[in-house]
C-alpha cells in the first residue's frame, strides 16, 4: 500500500477500534498492523521498538526522514487531525466545537472509559485469559461504578441532543460508543435501562456504516459465545 502511515492495533482494544473507524470513515490510506494482545505480541521486544509503552494503538508516520512513533489514542487523534488524516467533521478546527469534543474525551478517560474497562476486564478478561470466574461481590462493585457513568451519559451528555457534543457525530461519539459497545461481551444490555444511550449508539452505528460494525465483529463474536453458555 502506498502510504507513509502505519497503524498498530487490536480490535479488542477500545481506542484501537475508535481510531480505526475514524481513519476508515475519513478515507485515509494506512497500512494496518494487527497486534495480538491475547497472544502477547505487544510485550515482545520487536514491538517495544514500535511503542515504548508496549500498548495499542500506536502509529508510525514515515512521511519525513525521521519517522514519528506515537502512542496514546488522544495524542494520535490530535496528530492525525492536524495532518488532515482525520476528517474535520469528526474533529473540527473550530475552537468551540473542538473544546466540546475535548471536554468529553477528558471526562471519559476517568469516566465511562475507566468504568467500562474495569467491568470488561474483570468479567471477560478474568475468565477468558486467567480462567477463573470473578467474585459476585466484585462484579456488583464494578457494575455499580459503570452504571453511575451510564447514568451520566443518559442524563447529562445525551440529555438534549442526538450526539454527545450537539447535533453532529464527532470523534467524541466514536470513542464513547466504542467503550460502551465493548460490555456486550459480558452480556450487559443497555436498551431498557438506558434508552437514550442505546438510541445514540444506533445513530453512531448508522452514521459510521460499515466501519463501526466491522471494527466490532470480534466483540459480537464473543458476545454470542457468552450468551451460548448461559
From TrEMBL:
The keyword Transcription does not apply. It catalyses: RX + glutathione = an S-substituted glutathione + a halide anion + H(+). GO terms for cellular component: cytoplasm. InterPro entries: Glutathione-S-Trfase_C-like, Glutathione-S-Trfase_C_sf, Glutathione_S-Trfase, Glutathione_S-Trfase_N, GST_C, GST_C_Theta, GST_Theta, Thioredoxin-like_sf. It is found in: Cytoplasm. Residues 94-228 form the GST C-terminal domain. SUPFAM superfamilies: GST C-terminal domain-like (SSF47616), Thioredoxin-like (SSF52833). This is Glutathione S-transferase theta-1.
Amino acid at each position: 500500500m502506498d502510504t507513509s502511515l502505519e497503524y498498530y492495533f487490536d480490535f479488542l482494544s477500545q481506542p484501537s477500534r475508535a481510531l480505526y473507524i475514524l481513519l476508515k470513515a475519513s478515507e485515509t490510506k494506512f497500512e494496518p498492523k494487527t497486534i495480538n494482545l491475547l497472544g502477547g505480541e505487544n510485550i515482545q521486544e520487536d514491538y517495544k521498538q514500535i511503542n515504548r509503552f508496549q500498548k495499542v494503538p500506536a502509529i508510525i508516520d514515515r512521511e519525513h526522514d525521521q519517522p514519528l512513533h506515537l502512542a496514546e489514542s488522544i495524542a494520535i487523534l490530535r496528530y492525525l487531525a492536524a495532518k488532515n488524516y482525520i476528517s474535520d467533521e469528526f474533529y473540527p478546527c473550530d475552537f468551540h466545537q473542538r473544546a466540546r469534543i475535548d471536554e468529553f474525551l477528558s471526562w471519559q478517560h476517568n469516566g465511562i472509559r475507566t468504568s467500562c474497562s474495569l467491568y470488561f476486564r474483570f468479567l471477560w478478561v478474568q475468565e477468558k485469559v486467567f480462567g477463573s470466574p470473578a467474585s459476585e461481590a466484585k462484579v456488583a462493585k464494578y457494575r455499580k461504578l459503570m452504571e453511575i457513568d451510564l447514568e451520566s451519559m443518559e442524563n447529562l451528555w445525551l440529555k438534549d441532543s442526538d450526539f454527545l457534543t450537539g447535533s453532529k457525530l464527532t470523534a467524541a461519539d466514536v470513542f464513547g460508543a466504542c467503550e460502551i459497545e465493548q460490555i456486550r461481551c459480558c452480556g450487559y444490555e443497555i436498551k431498557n435501562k438506558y434508552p437514550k444511550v442505546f438510541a445514540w449508539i444506533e445513530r453512531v452505528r448508522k452514521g459510521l456504516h460499515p466501519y463501526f460494525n466491522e471494527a466490532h465483529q470480534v466483540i459480537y463474536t464473543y458476545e454470542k459465545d457468552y450468551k451460548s453458555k448461559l
